[in-house]
Protein 1
Amino acid sequence: MKLYMHPVSTVSRPVLQFVADEKIPVDMEVVDILKGQHYEPTYSKLNPNHLVPMLEDGDFRLTESAAILRYLAEKTGSDAYPKDIRQRARVNEVLDWFNSNFYRDWGYGLIYPQLFPHLKREDAKVQEAVVAWGKEKSKGWLQILNDHWLGPDRQYLCGDQITIADYFGAALVTAGELVHCNLSAYPNIERWLGNMKKRPSYGTVYETFNGFCASTKGQPWQAI
């Protein structure tokens, strides 16, 4: 199998960490999204979405981070994707919640329009309104994540055992570090992220991302 990815990519990191933890034999091919390589003809023919990650398993190609996590977990029989129908449904529910609700406002409302020029609105007032809306909506989603999905006792999103939802959700939430968000108002989120960062794979998988975050420090971000 081959994974096309970039270590800074928010949605590549869940797959990279899961592969590392599960010791899945996957060849890595970096697609330099910071230099626009994902728009070059060679990669565009493979993935017309111009996005990473993408998994190749023989003649089978799969895009979308959450789908790749499900596929790899199913293929390897990982306990991180429970066999019990209700437990698996809960994992799927949390994955869909992050994708459909949280990431829309957190990533594409608050973080990315500030960080990436191609997502910044040309009109300054429109840009200000987009980021302000994303910030307020994100606060609501963070509160739900803190109070409902995690609560004061749960170590992981679906109980006391890690699932693929944790890999996915942690990568999305830590994207806030790019604009230096402070999540101290959400202690359950901080505890959960601490659990994810304690994993042996974290230091290696997140090394490039953490360096990128360090490079953005001190800029006038709108952050939580």
Protein 2
Amino acid sequence: MTRIRRTIAEQMHRSWTTVPRVTNFDDADITDLEEFRQASKDDYAALGIKLTTMPFLIKAVAMALRANPALNASIDMEQGEVTYKEYVNIGIAVDTDRGLVVPSLRAADKSSIPDIARGLSKIAESARSNSFTIEELRGSSFTISNLGAIGGTYSTPIVNVPETAILLVGRSRKMPVVIGDEIQIRLMMPLSLSYDHRLVDGAAAARFLNAVIGYLKAPSRLLLAI
């Protein structure tokens, strides 16, 4: 085993053997968000920033975490303690030639969409050059894994302990959706939320996913979020 593969193996074994994991599945309607992104991407490109859906998802998750602190916490069974984080640092799972790494986007709840997009560009560059520092890989309070960049819809991601939850996003696809009495074709983003059932109950997980979906459905809320 390489050093990084051994580290991944140990972390996954720790999670699998200590965390009673549950996964909730849902879909977010990102039709309006995609229209907004398409209208804005050239402005970002002029500044050297590639505007994908991820900055919006990260901001939505960050705002939802502030309202649902159990998913932005860590649990210590030996001490019988729960630590609720006063910060929202989002770990971004990145597939590199050396293996999976999870660099952290700091203070995502206080960052604007352009700031998050710039942060993702920096992460992408570091992934290409395998130049992550140890500090960049520490301090996350929640993790997002983007399976859709490669392919796939739903999955059951493993919680990145000592975090209490992880969100996997699949590849968005057009689907028929009943709205009122009509069937419309909408662009839907598949979401898979795994969480530590020792601390996070199903109702809390559902409220968190509902909040994320609400932000993605109405992207103007993300731009005005404070």
